[in-house]
Structures are given as structure tokens and as C-alpha cells.
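C-alpha cells in:
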């Protein structure tokens, strides 16, 4: 069911914001960009935000000088993103599991990987590798604790995250995020990983 855009679109079909929406970029963005800069990512690079929702992280990246694509398969998410941030960001209506998208220099993944049903995770990682240039970066913010609630989101423990990424990525950084939103403090991991050459 979560593999279908209708499931997600229904959350946006409301006056109220969806529960996950923070109305601003994640506070983890600054730390993520510092790690990515150490790995060579510089303003001007192309970055895609899969499952961008209302586009706050995409807007945060655009403000830092990146060429940003906000991608989502829920039409109302993109409608809301465009209404909030206009057309200085490229908004792409697509399924992340599509065979050919991009390629981009980097992925900024916040609450998309954890939104996947666990049995789709390996295919999700393959899609991340496929949509990046060789050597491109997958920057992911994931929950490793969902406080016992049924998903989505689904917790991804650190070792599971490592095992999932390793076949296609070299892990440059994987540790607890230091500056989470207060509601998420101590429950988020930040990973920066480089796509291996084929
Ligand atoms: C939990 S929401 C997070 C939205 C946004 N990242 C945020 O933090 O506000 C997950 C988003 O991923 C999108 N999504 C889920 N599966 C997708 C897929 N296969 N392709 C594209 N978007 C997808 C949903 O439509 C939804 O907007």
C-alpha cells in the first residue's frame, strides 16, 4: 500500500500539515552538508531530494547554492512544494523506483528511505545507486528508533543501514545526528556514502 502514491497523497489532502512535516529544512542539513563538503560536494552540484514532500529540504539546499530537484510521486506534495517555493527548484513527479532518473551528483534523503517497507529496502538502495553518477553521494537521515510505533516510518538500526548500503556504496560517515529536531533528538542517524564505481 505504501508503494502507491495514493497512500501518501491522502496525507496531503487536508488543511492540516502531515505529522512528519516540520515546515522548514531538517536541522540535520547543516551537519550533512559539512560531511558532504569534506567528501567534495560543493555548491553548484546537482542534488535530488527523493520523497521531498512540501519541499523544505529542497529549498534549504537551493539556498546553499545547489541545483536541486525535489522529487515525489504524490501530486499534492509537489503542488504544495511548488506553492511554497516556486519554480527556482525543479519539481519532478516520479517514482524513485523508476528505471532511469537523473543522474545526479548527490541524493539528500530525509524520511524517504525509512518510509519504505523493509522488504523494498534493497531495491531502494539499488535505485539510489542507479540515479547517481559514479562517485556520487547518498546523504541519508534515518530513524533508528520509532518508539515502538508501527511504520512507516520504519527504524533502520545502524548495522542494518551499513549492511544495506555496503554492496553499492563506500560509507564515509555513519553516526548519530548531532542536531535533530527536538521531537527526534537521539533517534536519527546521518549517513554519507559514496557510490562505488561499477
Ligand atoms: C514521510 S514523507 C516525508 C516527506 C518529506 N521528506 C518531509 O520530511 O517532509 C515520505 C514522502 O515520500 C514520498 N514517496 C514515498 N515513496 C515514494 C516513491 N517510491 N517515489 C517517490 N516518492 C515517494 C511520499 O509521497 C511522501 O511525500
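Residues out:
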Amino acid at each position: 500500500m505504501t508503494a502507491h502514491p495514493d497512500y501518501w497523497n491522502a496525507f496531503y489532502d487536508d488543511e492540516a500539515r502531515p505529522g512528519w512535516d516540520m515546515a522548514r529544512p531538517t536541522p540535520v542539513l547543516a551537519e550533512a552538508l559539512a560531511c558532504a563538503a569534506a567528501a567534495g560536494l560543493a555548491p553548484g552540484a546537482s542534488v535530488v531530494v527523493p520523497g521531498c514532500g512540501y519541499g523544505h529540504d529542497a529549498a534549504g539546499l537551493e539556498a546553499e547554492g545547489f541545483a536541486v530537484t525535489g522529487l515525489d510521486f504524490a501530486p499534492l506534495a509537489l503542488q504544495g512544494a511548488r506553492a511554497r517555493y516556486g519554480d527556482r527548484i525543479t519539481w519532478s513527479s516520479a517514482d524513485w523506483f523508476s528505471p532511469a532518473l537523473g543522474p545526479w551528483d548527490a541524493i539528500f534523503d530525509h524520511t524517504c528511505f525509512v518510509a519504505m517497507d523493509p522488504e523494498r529496502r534493497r531495491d531502494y538502495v539499488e535505485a539510489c545507486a542507479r540515479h547517481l553518477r559514479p562517485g556520487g553521494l547518498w546523504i541519508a537521515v534515518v530513524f533508528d528508533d520509532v518508539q515502538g510505533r508501527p511504520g512507516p516510518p520504519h527504524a533502520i538500526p545502524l548495522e542494518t543501514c551499513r549492511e544495506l548500503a555496503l554492496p553499492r556504496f563506500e560509507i564515509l560517515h555513519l553516526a548519530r545526528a548531532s542536531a535533530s529536531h527536538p521531537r527526534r533528538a537521539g533517534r536519527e542517524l546521518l549517513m554519507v556514502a559514496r557510490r562505488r564505481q561499477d
